[in-house]
Specification:
Layout: H1 13-47
Length: about 55
C-alpha cells in the first residue's frame, strides 16, 4: 500500500445524481407553472376583469 502517493478520489457519481434530481425538480416546477399559473393569467387578460355568469343547464 502506497501511503505517500496522491490521494485517490472517490467517484463523484452522487454529484451527478444530485444535479439530475435538481434539474428534474426545476423541470417539474416549470411545467407546473405552465399548466397552472399561465392559463389563469391568459383567462384574466382575455376577460379584462369582467365576470362570467354561470348559465343554467
Amino acid at each position: 500500500m502506497d501511503m505517500g502517493g496522491p490521494a485517490r478520489r472517490r467517484p463523484v457519481a452522487w454529484r451527478r445524481a444530485v444535479a439530475v434530481l435538481l434539474a428534474g425538480a426545476v423541470a417539474v416546477g416549470a411545467v407546473g407553472v405552465l399548466l397552472v399559473v399561465v392559463p389563469g393569467m391568459v383567462v384574466e387578460h382575455d376577460l379584462a376583469g369582467a365576470s362570467v355568469a354561470a348559465q343554467d343547464g
